[in-house]
Amino acid sequence: METRLLWFCNWSVLGVCATLKLPQIFAVLGARSARGFSLPSLLLELAGFLVFLRYQCYYEYPLLTYLEYPILIAQDLILLLCVFHFKGDVKRAAPYIVLYVSAWFLLTLQKWIIDLAMNLCTFISAASKFAQLQYLWKSRDSGGVSALTWSLASYTCAARIMTTLMTTSDLTILIRFVIMLALNIWVAATILHYRKTDVKSE
User: Fold this and answer.
1) How far is it, in rounded angstroms, from Cα 102 to Cα 151?
2) How far lies 155's CA from each of 48, 58, 88, in Å?
């Protein structure tokens, strides 16, 4: 039974993550604007994903417990280019991409660097969620932000809590997923709140 649950969690997370950012990308493209979208949130999220993926690779954890991260990073890079495009300067994305590629190699120069980075990863990822929340609170506009994306992210965190408990039991990873689950739900609820407010004002 546990094997089937682990199989279901792993493959459902992969399936969800294969399309996780697509609603957000389509929302930005459909609005032809990055309105309501926080660039710092996206940049912090990318940094968190990168560190988390590198940590999992470094410690040679089972591939199925982190295989979604290359997919998420690719989707976030597409989203980053879309945001810069609608902000009017795609070339500004280049330094960030160079920074992320450099970080990939620098993170594993010493064991203590990757361990420290992973401990900071939870704070970085939490900061990305708070940056999005702050932007939503300030603008009171969720026009270009997808509640579906954040809801699906909540599911993936819940599923990854299960897979972590069944495989590595890594406490650092477990704490990260619990915090991310709570914050993803909070962001999704905030998006829906401002969406209802927009409908009422019309």
Assistant:
1) 31
2) 18, 26, 34
201: how many CB neighbours lie within 10 A of its CB?
7
Tokens read off for 57: 């690779």
Q: Where are the alpha helices (DSSP H) in 20-67?
A: 22-31, 39-58
Query: Per the structure block, which two tokens stand in for 117?
Result: 């980075």
Spatial distance between the Cα atoms of 69 and 73, rounded to a whole number of angstroms:
6
> At CA 177, angle to CA 188 and CA 1, rounded to 5?
105
Amino acid at 17: C
Q: How many Cβ atoms are within 10 Å of 140's Cβ, its own excluded?
A: 12
**DSSP 8-class letter at 88:** T
Q: Which of these, 172, 166, 175, 128, lies nearest to 150 by C-alpha position?
A: 128
Backbone angles phi, psi at 168, to 5 degrees: -90, -25
With tokens 């990863």, the residue in question is 121
Q: Could you tell me the pLDDT band of residue 110, with boundaries at 50, 70 and 90?
A: very high
Q: How far is CA 84 from CA 26, 44, 174, in A?
A: 15, 15, 33
What would the pLDDT profile of 124-164 be if each residue is shown by its tens digit? Answer: 889 889 988 998 888 877 667 778 888 999 999 999 999 99
Residue 20 CA to residue 149 CA, distance in Å, equals 6
